[in-house]
Specification:
Number of strands: 19
Oligomer: single chain
Mean pLDDT: 96
Number of helices: 9
Strand content: 25-35%
CATH architecture of the largest domain: 3-Layer(aba) Sandwich
Number of domains: 2
Strand order of the largest sheet: 1-2-6-3-7-18
Order of helices and strands: HHEEEEEHEHEEEEEHEEEHEEHEHEEH
Structural class: alpha+beta
């Protein structure tokens, strides 16, 4: 079986979050020389496969086998892969069974390595991720099996295969802000406290405002308003409160506390309530890390492209690796059809990804 055969097989598993649909057992049997460790919870399956070749560093490849629902508007059955004009169509081709196929095939064919190789797979990356990669990492810590370095094979390339590696990700802070007023008749505004009018002179100081200046790794953390609502949907009653929702994709330079201080200064003369939650925390792997340098060199050697080191985009399971002190990067095929109808990737990209992973393993301890 070659990497494309393997990908076609993985795409045939209808592995909707958190159901792996048997794909993890298949991968375990395919990598028959690797020791398997399962850590399952609340219907989520997590598989760690590892092989110690010798004393040395531990390099892990990580990803997920679960996919989002197919939805409508597909031209073909989303769980019966179809090849057309050099492209493979099926749910999960880009996100991220192409990456899984590339690194599983790489490890299948690796005969020597100065250290330990492993694979970490979960069936709950597209869901809440509460019982996925993070609990497996906690379990591996108790076994003294945490990797030194990790490659997460999420789709990262932007327009040309090889043009981007993720070396970090921004965090995500959600804000829920309520301004309290006093309801009244629109004909007697002086008898009411209208929170909409109170917000008006402040709105441009929170909407789309940069909270820091960014740095070489991160764009500025920006406050993005996602929802504003209040009132009774009538024209003659002013609202008693106004609710605002916002999101901040934050760099390492902005924290929840700094957002609280920003709001407190702007709303100091108003009655308000603020709640912040953090879905993920920012992390970055240093540009001179061994994993960044070796992977970048492999990409340039096989594609001729000097890849960009990026922290753009949403969250991924790489955030959990960063929290455990693991040097982690993400690299995979072009990201342009993930979660969309007729998701697809090219045969050429998958083969090149596999070649780059093979080169990276070969050069990692050379």
């Amino acid at each position: 079986m070659n990497v494309i055969d393997l990908l076609l097989k993985l795409l045939s598993f209808e592995s909707l979050t958190p159901d792996d649909a048997g794909s993890l057992k298949f991968i375990e049997s395919y990598l028959d020389g690797y020791e398997a460790v399962y850590f399952n919870k609340e219907g989520v399956k997590n598989l760690f496969l590892t092989k110690k070749f010798s004393e040395g560093e531990h390099l892990c490849f990580a990803g997920h086998v679960d996919v989002v629902p197919a939805g409508s508007s597909w031209s073909t059955n989303p769980f019966v892969p179809v090849i057309k004009e050099g492209r493979i169509f099926a749910r999960g081709t880009q996100d991220m069974k192409s990456g899984v196929a590339a690194f599983v095939q790489t490890l299948k064919e690796t005969e020597d390595f100065q250290g330990r190789l492993s694979v970490l797979l979960t069936s709950d990356e597209e869901g809440e991720a509460e019982f996925g990669t993070v609990i497996m990492l906690e379990h591996l810590k108790t076994l003294n099996l945490l990797p030194d370095y990790c490659i997460v094979a999420e789709p990262t390339c932007e327009s040309i295969f090889g043009d981007a590696i993720k070396i970090g990700r921004r965090g995500s802070i959600n804000g829920y802000l309520t301004i309290q007023g006093r309801q009244g008749h629109a004909a007697y505004p002086e008898k009411a406290i209208n929170p909409v009018h109170q917000l008006a002179p402040i709105l441009d100081k929170i909407a789309g405002v940069n909270l820091d200046d960014g740095d070489d790794d991160f764009a500025p953390s920006q406050m993005v308003i996602t929802d504003i609502r209040g009132g009774m949907e009538v024209t003659n009653v002013t609202p008693d409160s106004l609710r605002i929702m916002f999101n901040v994709r934050n760099s390492t330079k902005t924290t929840q506390e700094e957002i609280k201080l920003h709001i407190a200064e702007l709303f100091k003369d108003l009655t308000y309530d603020l709640k912040l939650t953090q879905g993920s925390y920012p992390f970055v792997t240093k540009r001179d890390s061994k994993i960044v340098k070796v992977l970048s060199q492999s990409i340039e050697k096989l594609t001729g492209i000097e890849t960009k080191l990026s922290t753009a985009g949403g969250t991924s399971d790489a955030r959990f690796m960063g929290a455990f002190g693991i040097d982690v990067v993400e690299f995979g095929v072009i990201n342009d059809t993930i979660h969309a109808p007729n998701e697809s990737t090219t045969i050429v990209e998958v083969e090149r990804l596999y070649d780059i992973f093979k080169e990276t393993v070969k050069d990692f301890t050379a």
